[in-house]
Amino acid sequence: MPHEEPLPFWLVNVPRDQWPKECPEFLKECGEKDRSIIGTPDAEYKRLSWDEVTEITRINRVDKFHRVPSDLRRYRQYTHRLIKEYGSIMNFIVNERLQWKTMAPKGRPFEFEEDIKVLYNDWPYGVDEKIIHLVIWTKFDLEEAPNSDDLTPEARKGIEDYIQQTFCSKAQPDHVIWFKNWRSLKSVHAVEHFHVMLYDPDPEFVKTITHGDVPMASRVS
């Protein structure tokens, strides 16, 4: 039986009748990490369980969160198009997703609801499909400790109080986790945000807290 050469990463998870003749533009500048993920067949990818997600956030190793290979491919294709159309991902987030007319906060962190918006993560990570991944966008800064990827104690307490009041009052506390991406992992740097994951929450609660939001991954082909 002849030895078959492995497929180039940019053909993996693509139906044979849709194979491009060369590497698409949106994948040409992929780093080695993304090439490795995109070059993995979806069938070989293992989604993270709730216990694994909880442990990753506990030890602050959020770099271990990855998207499903075919979703990462779609994400890169989508953001490549956004940058062409809007100039930057930030412009799209502010103007289309957040629809904020001003980025100036009305008050202190978490003081006013209008300084906060809860939306789905448009391109969630490869986790158990019962896990809902939300992004909490804020007009105010969440201060980080100098020379660190961690928050100041005051900023951490502000988030934890908000999480307790907003989510733990509506869901089992052990079904709620939050984390903030390291600077080096952020895809949107200029708009402050942190992440919340809920395990198997009440769909009506999620609909209410997000004002009926739908993630972009579900809207585009």
Topology:
Layout: H1 32-38, H2 50-58, H3 69-86, H4 89-98, E1 116-120, E2 131-138, H5 153-168, E3 176-179, E4 192-199, H6 203-209
Antiparallel strand pairs: 1-2, 2-4, 3-4
Taken as a percent bin, the fraction of beta residues is 5-15%
Given the C-alpha coordinates, what overall shape results? globular
What profile does the largest beta sheet have? 4 strands, antiparallel
| Contiguous uncertain segments of 5+ residues | none
Q: What's the order of the H and E elements?
A: HHHHEEHEEH
Which bin fits the share of residues in helices? 25-40%
Tally of individual helices: 6
Could you say which structural class the secondary elements and strand pairing correspond to? alpha+beta
**What is the typical, i.e. mean, pLDDT?**
91
Strand order, largest beta sheet: 1-2-4-3
Total E-strand runs: 4
Q: What is the CA-atom radius of gyration, in angstroms?
A: 19 Å
**First-to-last CA distance:** 38 Å
Describe the protein's architecture and organization.
30% of the residues lie in helices and 11% in strands. It is α+β, with helices and mostly antiparallel strands and 221 residues long. The mean pLDDT is 91. It has helices at residues 32-38, 50-58, 69-86, 89-98, 153-168, 203-209; strands spanning 116-120, 131-138, 176-179, 192-199. It has a 4-stranded antiparallel sheet with strand order 1-2-4-3, sandwiched between helices.
